[in-house]
Amino acid sequence: MEFCEVFTDLRKKAGYSQNQVADELHVTRQAVSRWERGETIPEPETLLALSRLFRVSVNTLLGSPRTLVCQSCGMPLSDDFLPQEPDGTLNEKY
Questions:
Q1: What single string gives the DSSP state of each residue in 43-85?
Q2: Exposed/middle/buried for 44, CB within 10 Å: 0-12, 13-18, 19+?
Q3: Over 90: is that where the pLDDT of 46 sits?
Q4: Across the chain, what does the average pLDDT equal?
Q5: Poorest-confidence range of 18-27, 51-60, 64-73?
Q6: What is d(CA 34, CA 41) in angstroms, rounded to the nearest whole number?
Q7: Which of 17, 36, 48, 90 is most exposed, with minimal Cβ within 10 Å?
Q8: Between vectors from CA 61 to CA 34 and to CA 86, what angle results, nearest 5°?
Q9: How far is Cα 81 from Cα 91, in angstroms, rounded to an integer?
């Protein structure tokens, strides 16, 4: 899946409007609309903020380009099993 599809699905599942996401991230509603249409993707700092907002990893936001694996046991890791940093972002360096 592309970022635009993942982002749109997450926004709708969370029950946020484009305006609400824009207000939360301090961006314009037009920027959110462009993300959903696939015209642009957010800056890295904004991706981290989206990760915190939706409680998913940046990896998931970007369409899961790679599978995260536990370095100790080899178990595939989903967002449900990733540890969180103090600021709420998911730690993908497990």
A1: -HHHHHHHHHHHT--HHHHTT--S-EE-TTT--EE-GGG--B-
A2: exposed
A3: yes
A4: 86
A5: 64-73
A6: 8
A7: 17
A8: 120
A9: 10
User: Rounded to two decimals, what is the model's pTM?
Assistant: 0.71
The residue that leads in pLDDT, 90 or 35, is 35
The half-sphere exposure of 59 on its side-chain side, counting CA atoms within 13 A, is 16
d(CA 69, CA 47): 21
Q: Which of 58, 64, 47, 53 is nearest to 14 (CA)?
A: 53
End-to-end CA distance of the chain: 24
Any idea which residue has 């989206």 for tokens?
50
